[in-house]
Design a protein that fits this description.
The protein is α/β, with parallel strands linked by helices and 190 residues long. It has 6 helices and 7 strands, in the order E-H-E-H-E-E-H-H-E-H-E-E-H. The protein has one domain: P-loop containing nucleotide triphosphate hydrolases (Rossmann fold). It has a 7-stranded mixed beta sheet.
Length: 190
């Protein structure tokens, strides 16, 4: 039995403004293709939705990109860089995987069960033609969702005087982690 090697590489960017965060999202969108899964992570107020707005602009989506926290998932339509139709499934997994599941069930199993009950499991496991999945708060399911993916972690360094200040102002540290050979090649172009 041959052991499988997981290929990973990461790039770290300092993003000084919300405009720069949107530009980064737009640049990443120019690299995506159908079937891609991107996972966004970071604390509240880090800039995940701001990145998603730029990502949507990069896919020429005209609808507003807002956090899907209360709707869990939104389906939006645009186009890929090559002009082909794109469907963005923007998922927020923050509210998924609560305690309403079998005792002893691990978090990943709870999350996957809830995705299945919402009808999102197939879209995430095997995105259809023209589909790209952008999931906020999905880092717990990273390996299960897609063996090839781009993980985007946004850190929001805050000094003690800004602890309760959740504005879009301020510098962010964004780590882009390519998992899988295809994403390694594309991340090199960013």
């Amino acid at each position: 039995m041959k052991e499988e090697t997981v290929l990973e590489q990461q790039k770290v960017r300092t993003v000084p403004t919300d405009t720069n965060m949107r530009e980064l999202g737009k640049s990443v969108a120019k690299l995506v293709k159908e079937g891609d899964v991107l996972l966004l992570s970071g604390p509240l107020g880090a800039g995940k939705t701001t990145f998603a707005q730029g990502f949507g602009a990069g896919l020429s989506i005209s609808e507003p990109i807002v956090s899907p926290t209360f709707t869990i998932a939104r389906e939006l339509h645009g186009t890929f860089a090559d002009g082909k139709p794109a469907t963005l499934i923007h998922v927020d997994a923050y509210r998924l995987g609560g305690e309403d599941f079998a005792p002893g069930q691990d978090t990943v199993s709870r999350l996957l069960d809830e995705l299945e009950s919402l009808g999102l499991d197939e879209a995430l496991e095997e995105p259809g033609d023209g589909t790209v999945v952008l999931m906020e708060w999905g880092e717990q399911m990273a390996g299960v969702l897609a063996s090839e993916r781009l993980e985007v972690h946004i850190a929001r360094p805050i000094d003690s005087s800004q602890v309760d200040d959740f504005t879009s102002d301020g510098e962010r540290i964004v780590t882009l982690k390519a998992v899988g050979k295809d994403w390694l090649n594309r991340l090199a172009k960013l």
